[in-house]
Design a protein that fits this description.
The chain has 206 residues and is α+β, with helices and mostly antiparallel strands. It is 43% helix and 18% strand. The strands form 3 sheets. It has a 4-stranded mixed β-sheet. A hairpin with a 2-residue loop joins strand 2 and strand 3. It is elongated and about 65 Å long. The chain starts with a helix and ends in an 8-residue tail after the last helix.
């Protein structure tokens, strides 16, 4: 079986919804060669090119093709790069429900390489960041800290406070939150600590 047939067979066997990168097939040849083979799969309707160098085995529904969400794509990139990726800015706010505005520009911090991905009408920006931003053991707390930093100390409303209180009741990790809070700016640490105390949790000095 030639290389082209091997790649086609793998694509056919994979479940719809699979995301592929050129590097996934690096063992079969150089980037130019693999890119050409994947482009042929696109021409034949086996794959869809959803961004430069990123391919997708479509999920077909009665309403048309169901494309991967930004979150699903980001997780696929993190697995491929063996990197940590953390939503920041309005992206973090939106994921936690602290903002109802649906972004067209998504920004993430990464321990891997910086890059910009255009996904249909959306832009995903990955910014390489310092290890401190990935020090949280709990993903929710890491996202919350980034969301609050984006909102800003003087812009936090009572509605934000109520929503965050509800989120903390659902997602607070009792085993890690004290250490996680140490990674946050002082005002964020105090803000979250006050809500945790009001929710009835014992909080050691952070």
């Amino acid at each position: 079986m030639c290389i082209a047939e091997k790649i086609r067979e793998q694509v056919k066997l994979d479940k719809p919804g699979a995301v592929y990168f050129i590097s996934d097939f690096a063992q079969h040849g150089n980037d130019v060669f693999i890119s050409r083979l994947l482009s042929e799969c696109v021409d034949d309707g086996l794959l869809i090119r959803i961004a430069n160098g990123i391919y997708y085995k479509p999920v077909e529904t009665k309403f048309g093709v169901l494309f991967p969400s930004v979150d699903e794509l980001i997780k696929a990139i993190a697995r491929r790069d063996n990197a940590q990726i953390l939503p920041t800015g309005e992206t973090a706010q939106n994921l936690l429900g602290l903002s109802t505005q649906v972004p067209t520009r998504y920004v993430y911090l990464t321990s891997g390489s910086s890059r910009r991905i255009v996904l249909r009408e959306q832009t995903i920006t990955l910014k390489r960041s310092v290890p401190r931003n990935f020090a949280c053991k709990n993903d929710f707390m890491a996202t919350l800290i980034q969301a609050l930093k984006s909102i800003g100390k003087d812009n936090v409303t009572d509605e934000h406070r109520q929503m965050i209180a509800g989120l903390l009741q659902k997602h607070l990790d009792e085993k890690t939150y004290i250490d996680d809070l140490k990674t946050a700016p002082i005002w964020v640490r105090k803000f979250i600590s006050e809500i945790i105390k009001q929710n009835g949790h014992e909080l050691a000095s952070a």
